[in-house]
Amino acid sequence: xxxxxxxxGTKTKFTLEDxxxxxxxxxxxxxxxxxxxxxxxETIEEGVNEVCKQxxxxxxxxxxxxxxxxxxxxxxxxxxxxxxxxxxxxGKDKYAVGNDCVNGWAGSLNAKExxxxxxxxxxxxxxxxxxxxxxxxxxxxxxxGDEASAYYIGMKILNLFxxxxxxxxxxxxxxxxxxxxxxxxxxxxxxxxxxxMKRDEIAKLSMLLQDLLDEDDKYAKEILEDxxxxxxLAIDSLINQMDFTKPVKVSYSGGVFNLGDxxxxxxxxxxxxxxxxxxxYTTPDKxxxxxxxxxxxxx
Length: 299
Prior knowledge:
With 299 residues, this protein is α/β, with parallel strands linked by helices. 45% of the residues lie in helices and 19% in strands. It has 11 helices and 10 strands. The protein has helices at 37-55, 79-89, 100-109, 150-165, 173-181, 189-195, 199-204, 208-214, 218-241, 261-270, 284-298, and strands at 2-7, 11-18, 21-28, 64-68, 95-98, 114-119, 123-128, 134-138, 248-253, 275-277. The strands form 2 sheets. The chain has a 5-stranded mixed sheet, with helices on both faces. Strands 8-7-6-9-10 form a 5-stranded mixed sheet, with helices on both faces. The radius of gyration is 20 Å and the shape is globular.
C-alpha cells in the first residue's frame, strides 16, 4: 500500500493505493506560509487517518508515502516541521517529501522526460530531460512572482476593476461582474474587500476569466495573452538550459488549465520552440503515488 499526498495553495488531497484500488480524502492547504505548524500537523494527521480508516488499516501499514508540499525547497525553515510531522505520523524512513511540482510532473508525464507546468493557486514548472537532469522555473511565490497562476489572474482582475472605476480605462463586463459579486455600492469598498481576502480567495477570482472570454471582453483577452506569455517563458527557460528530445513534450496541472485549448494553443503560439502539449497521464495525487513507488523501488 502506497500513499500519495498532493498539497497545494488551496487544497490537499490524500490518496491511498492498494493493488489498484484507491481511497481518497481532501483537506485544506498545508502551505506552511499560510497556516501554523500546529495546523499543518493536524491536517496531515487527519488526512492520513481518514484514508486509513476507509481501508481499515493503521498508518504503520502504509509501505511508503510521497508528500508533495507547497514551498518545499524554497523555505529551508519549514523542513524541520515537515520531518517532525511525518516522523511521528508515518515513521522515519517510510516517506519522501518534494515540492508540489514534482508530483505534478510525475502524474502528468508518468515520471518520464518532459516538462510539467503547474498553474494553480501558484505557478511553477519542472523539467526532467533525457539525461535525467531536473530543473524548475517560476515558483517564486505571490510576492515575487507566480506569474500566470490563479492568484496572478485574480490580482489582474482586481487591478483592472480599479482602473475602470477611476476612468483610466473604459468599463467592460469585468467591472460589472466584480460589482455584482461583492454587492459593491461605492467602488472604494473594493479596497477593504481585497485587503481582507486570503490568497486562495483572490485565486478563485480567476474563475471569472472563462465567462469574460466567452463574452469577448477585451481585457480578459489581454489577461489570456499575458498568462500564455508568462507560461511560455517558464517552459522556454527550461528548454534553454536542458537537453530534451524534440519536439519537447509538455504537460500541465492546476485549475487555470480549465480554460482548455484556448490557453494551450496560446502557449504553443508564444513559445520559441516546437512543443508537443499532451493531456496529463493522471492526476497530481496519483503522481505522488507514482513517486512513492519509484523512490521505494530505488532504495
